[in-house]
Amino acid sequence: MNTIELEGINVRYGRKHVLRDLEWTIQPGITGLLGENGAGKTTLLSVLAGLRRPDSGTVDFSGAFAAPRFGFVPQRFSTPPEMRVMDTVSYAAWVNGLARRDSHDAAVRALEAVDLADRARDRVRSLSGGQRQRLGIAAGLAHAPDVLVLDEPTVGLDPAQRVRVREVVASLGRSRTVLLSTHVLEDVHHLCDRVGLLTGGRIAFDGTVSEIKHKMHAQESGGLESALERGYRTLMDELGGGVQ
Fold this sequence. Notes:
Blueprint: E1 3-13, E2 16-26, E3 29-34, H1 41-48, E4 56-62, E5 70-73, H2 85-95, H3 100-113, H4 129-141, E6 147-151, H5 159-172, E7 177-181, H6 185-191, E8 194-199, E9 202-207, H7 209-213, H8 227-239
Parallel strand pairs: 3-7, 3-8, 5-6, 6-7
Antiparallel strand pairs: 1-2, 1-4, 8-9
């Protein structure tokens, strides 16, 4: 599995400086990326997945592959509803560099990994919301990437669907480097080994979930918040981000 080193990453959109001299090490396993809306998370994911070149800085890799293959599953994964599930994933494998003759078998493996093999011949329109999210993961997984980047994979799902997607992501994290961007702190609690907090264009915190929990003020009452939510809110207040 690969370790990813980001050094001095800067990205500007016009006069807006989105990422500022960002430094971060992403370890194998599952790492969470937290931050407010507009903090630059999507930009950072795009840089990691090779979809956006930084204005300056480097992204280096160490591990089994010096130039690992990336899989990227955007928050809004969409595909023509009339396509069959198998064709959707097979096409994704081909687009990401597999030979056409190998794409079908790759799609079979990816659908098995997300527990959708029994829906392979169905139309996409027949899938539930949670199944479509798993289809998106299968499409990002079909070309056997070494690094998988997931942007809000459980957004809009009901609790049962969210649990099923978490099970899939947890399984994938055992054999590859996974970066999970999410606003759902329960996803972080259940899935992530480490967490990076993006604010002010930089990774302002890099640590474990337990370390975030320890940031909560001892005098705060629990209320309806979990320890992770209280710790996250306290950490954002300390950093000047302010949770809305």
